[in-house]
Design a protein that fits this description.
about 200 residues; alpha+beta; 60s Ribosomal Protein L30, Chain: A; six-stranded mixed sheet; four-stranded mixed sheet; 5 helices; 10 strands
Length: about 200
């Protein structure tokens, strides 16, 4: 009979020594770097003073005018591509009367609208009735009713109304600005008909 020696060790006694995972305490810490705050792009604003006009082709800026009282304003937006109008013009007529320089530009805008576009015509705080706006649209220059021709060029995409000012975005959306006792209004079909009846006389 073979006896067990003093230094013999059975498997069941050894196995736990190398199967059991060793607990390792980590003393290092890692901190993720803070992400920079997102940068909001600045929107450029082009302000059009009284008796002036501006044209932009940048596709980013907001065209704006304020202080429409006995004045009128017209915006002509053309060259619509990729969801924006690539040419936008805003004019502010003091007393509702364009200058000779403005008429030159208006004739070009009238030609641009042959390929489609959008028109917004506004009367100010003191020119807010359909009759007042009709008189402004019906004025002649060298025996031509240039403003009326523009407003009639694209009737389905033309807005007529009243406000103290306007902001116009590249996509053609706009915000009408409230004035003194003048709530911004977009004319309905009946009011538009009154405008054209007066302008055509």
């Amino acid at each position: 009979m073979t006896g067990r020696k003093k230094n013999d060790v059975f498997d069941f006694q050894v196995k736990p020594l190398y199967d059991a995972p060793l607990a390792v305490k980590s003393t290092s810490t890692t901190t993720s770097p803070a992400l920079p705050a997102p940068v909001t792009p600045q929107v450029e604003r082009i302000d059009v003073p009284i008796s002036d006009f501006a044209t932009t082709t940048d596709g980013r800026s907001v065209l704006s005018t304020r202080g429409l009282s006995n004045c009128t304003a017209i915006a002509v937006l053309t060259d619509f591509r990729d969801g924006i109008y690539h040419k936008r013009t805003l004019m502010h007529f003091q007393g509702g009367v364009p200058s000779d320089e403005m008429y030159t530009t208006l004739k070009q805008l009238d030609a641009d609208l042959a390929n489609g576009g959008k028109v917004i015509f506004l009367g100010g705080d003191l020119t807010k009735s359909p009759v007042g706006i009709g008189v402004a649209l019906g004025q002649s220059h060298n025996e031509q009713k240039v403003l009326l021709d523009i407003v009639k060029k694209q009737p389905e995409s033309t807005t007529i109304g009243t406000a103290s000012g306007i902001d116009i975005n590249p996509d053609g959306s706009y915000k009408l600005i409230e004035g003194n006792n003048n709530v911004p209004t977009v004319f309905d079909q009946n009011q538009r008909a009154q405008v054209f009846d007066m302008a055509d006389d």
